[in-house]
Amino acid sequence: MSDMVVHGQVVDPEIDRLRKQVQEQRREIAELQNGLDDARQSSQQATRALVSLRKQFSPMYKALQMVFGDLDAANIPDEPVYPTLGGPAGSGSVVGGNPRTAAIWQSWKDKLGAGPGKIIDVLLTHGEMNATQLKIACACRMDTVYRNVSALKTAGLIDKNGNKYALKKL
Predict the structure, then answer these.
(1) Dihedral sign of CA atoms 65, 69, 70, 74 in order
(2) Domain residue limits at 43
(3) CA distance 111 to 152
(4) Residue 15 host element (H or E)
(5) Is the Cβ–Cβ distance between 97 and 86 less than 8 Å?
(6) What is the pLDDT of residues 101-120, one digit of tens each?
């Protein structure tokens, strides 16, 4: 290596390169430190938001814990248990029905299809309902309720009492 003389001082190019490298690394460290500070600030904001959320929902959470604790203590199942014919509620079950009646309703559901079948299931489970209640219970549109009720009327399976619908007694 050859040293250079600049303004009367000896300058080693390797030392000069190393000084520049140290300066660059210090700049990178400063940038990383700023990024770390920003990340810490964001983390603190997120923690404050979560603490606030917890504070707001804590009473509801504790109340639900008590309710579900009571349900667990009472040995209440997660799914309803009905006397059924053909599976769980909604798939041919008849709440409190006898097997013959359940078989007849299942036969009608098979003939009329899923839409009218859902109306049959809902009315068997809940009894007399108006069109809005059927819409909510069946999770469908109002025109779908009327179309399915019409199919049940055509088959002679439904009675209308005021604004409420009920299945005919078999």
Answers:
(1) positive
(2) 4-73
(3) 11
(4) helix 13-73
(5) no
(6) 888 888 899 999 999 999 99
